[in-house]
Amino acid sequence: MSQSQQAEEPPRIFGLPIKYVVLCFLVVQNGGAVLLMRAVRALPGESEFATQTAVILQELLKGCTCAVLMLRQHGSLKPAFENRAESLKTAVPALLYLVQNNLQYVAVGYLDAPTYAVTYQTKIFWVAVCSVVLLGKKVERYQWFALFILMAGVCMVQFNRTEAASGSDDTAAQSGARLFGVCIILLAALCSSLAAVSFEKLLKGVKVDLWTRNLQLAFYSLICSIGPLLGEMGPLSEKGFFHGYTKLTFLCIAMNGWGGLLIGVVINYADAILKDIAIGASICLSVLGSVFLFEFQLTAQMILGIVMVSWAVPLYAGRASCGLALVPATSQPPRAALPGQSIGKQYESQDEQELEEQSSMLEGEKASAKSG
């Protein structure tokens, strides 16, 4: 093996390629965060804290971590806010992400973890709708098929939970609570999709590294959270900011706060296919965790719905195939399309967009190093 090949060999942890270690962390984070959020909102003695305080601490943790990483990389925080006009645009998606985070805490109190995890994947559907409406994109035939599979899988899961409730007591109250939770998580998915699409529309063509972007989002999220926090000042001043907090609450905040930054590691060492695998595996993890922790009853219909949703994710992104519409498998996320072009060349989420941008930046750095 030549020296150049040895130099390009990816690093290993415990003898394993780092991309597989990253995959495991991503699965644990995605699945574990859902289970933890369910635990802190459903278990006795774990639901008394104000959700707004948890969201604020998540953003504060993420912001402080990004600030440290920016100081290490740039030696200053100035790049994040030196162009005030551009950085101010981040306030729009930051507000949407703030609303999304609050809605997620509310929804998980009414839904079991598998139903929550599966239903939240409707954000792919909302991204398609928002991209068509706001960016003038069009959806390919295979993507319409993927969206159909996605929504059919979600409906199957919802119908399964409704059937389970019909055989128990207090059906009307349980059905009403479940319907409310579904509406809330659908709204959270819509906010997430609007934030991702508006972020692309507002900052299109602006090269911003991952840590700078996350610091901007965290900063404006904290600014936007002042209003809702003032509305909670009465109870908070009486009971305290950390009233109702337990060890699980702090663990949940840490997992959600640092979870978004895990994408930065995925960008450097993994690829989009592994990200798709992680989504499906994390849903399976949330199901298994619910079976053991919350006595969740798994049915064949539920399993089929989960499989459909897990398959629809890579199919929509162009990394899977089906008999009706063949899709070329790719290992890299597609580049952004111009208005009027196919949404198949469009990012399905903010994470996908960051993955592409960072990959391009890394390739540029490698080229500069070789030329030097």
Automatic annotation (TrEMBL):
Lineage, opening ranks? Eukaryota, Sar, Alveolata, Dinophyceae, Suessiales
The cellular location(s) given in this protein's UniProt record come to: Membrane
Know the name of this protein?
UDP-galactose transporter
Species of origin: Polarella glacialis (Dinoflagellate)
Which keywords does the record carry? Membrane, Transmembrane, Transmembrane helix
Pfam families per record: Nuc_sug_transp
Q: Which InterPro entries match?
A: EmrE-like (IPR037185), Nuc_sug_transpt (IPR007271)
- Specify whether Membrane is a keyword of the entry: yes
Key word Nucleotide-binding present: no
Check the record and name the NCBIfam families matching this protein: nst (TIGR00803)
